[in-house]
Amino acid sequence: MTPAEAPVRAVVVGTGSRAQTFTAALARRPRFRVAALCDPNPVRIAHHQRLLKDAGEPEAAAWTPEDFPDRLRTEGIEEVVVTTVDAVHDAYIVPALEAGCRVVTEKPMTTDAARCRRILRTVEATGGELAVAFNYRFNPVHEEVRRQLARGAVGEVLSVHFEWLLDVRHGADYFRRWHREKYLSGGLMVHKSSHHFDLVNWWLGARPQHVFGYGRLGFYGREAGERSGYRRDYERAHGSAEARDDPFALPLAENDALRSLYLHAESHDGYLRDRNVFGDGITIEDDMSVLVRYDTGAAMTYHLTAYSPWEGYRVAFNGTGGRLELEVEESRWQPPRLPTASGRGAIHGDKAMANAGGPRILLRPLWREPYAVPLPDYDHAGHGGGDERMLTALYGPADPAGTHGTADATATGAGQYATAVDGALALVTGLAANESFSTGARVITSDLVAVPPG
After folding, report:
1. Domains of the chain
2. Residue 236 DSSP code
3. pTM exceeds 0.85, yes or no
4. CA–centroid distance for 443 within its chain
5. What is the side-by-side order of every strand in the sheet holding 157-167?
6. Cβ–Cβ under 8 Å, residues 344 and 258
7. How far is CA 28 from the centre of its chain?
8. To pair with 91 at 20 to 30 A between CA atoms, which of 148, 337, 378, 447?
9. Residue 378 has pLDDT above 80, yes or no
């Protein structure tokens, strides 16, 4: 950036834990300036303002959601990052596109078909750019899977089996916070599995057509907790004697970031970050089985478990020339409680787990001996290294003098990140699965959202 060039003025909407990734990333890139932070909670905004100050950045203005549409134009905002509650993503994406801003939104793009159609119409009408932050596309192991499939390592892919296991620390966290209410998050089929559905769409170069599934709340919630004996009688963990030795409780006060972002912010909006995972009011599923048919003719069986003793995933591609197997072990097991100093580890993606395993890709060609595909060193933090590489593709290389990332932390190019069309295609599988859970019927995805060509 030359002295004559003013930095791109950005606003980060939603200042929870995940937003820290984007606030820090923009602060490490001199081409950008975080000019504003938008959130209904001033305490969370103040937390991010301190992060920027510690990075040597100018103070960012504090906006309320009501400020957002008008101040976009009056304050010359060019870049918008949306990391707020999933169900209100469209309330920021649409006016930002209409104001001529480039938008990056956390996944999922939104939570229902009507909002999805609204976003797609706005992208088409404005010609604006919307990127969806599917960081798993940038995981080097996932990129290698795509290369192997693209070179025909297994021939034509006829079927995929995808099993994702969330352990009883990470999985439980979705049942402590706002994600436990489906009207806010779309459930794990939308909030979490859109990650995985996007990967399969990207790996296969395919679009989902038909979806059928079963889902239930079988482990978390009051009824299941009483049946299993795991339930303790408290609403939230902080200040509760019942929660003191509960392995499912989150100790907010033991971690600086959680204390600053949530515990100290409760008086402004009443949001509790540490609710009982075996409490009332949970409307999302914790065990889900889905069958998907793609426009290429391939079929996928998919299963998500949110209460596993270990965390990781297994994917198998069966083709006319053999079979490719991917296995990633994020954690082998979990002790019942986190040490006080590591409380932040309860939030996925922040730190590598000390007992994490690693990835493996095994190719089993027809009529030939199986062999392992060589892989790079694996970074368990930052979603397998995907976060930093995605941020580089979106915003350019970080300042080598910064605290994270270097100029060579590159991904394969800007064309790799997901567009609004990609976001919609990942979303419709989850939406169709949710409808199938409710109705027991097979769902045609185009009946929900007719996604335009991408």
Report:
1. 8-133 (3.40.50.720), 136-220+285-378 (3.30.360.10), 227-269 (no CATH)
2. B
3. yes
4. 24
5. 371-372, 359-365, 322-331, 311-319, 157-167, 299-308, 287-294, 208-216, 443-444
6. yes
7. 22
8. 447
9. no
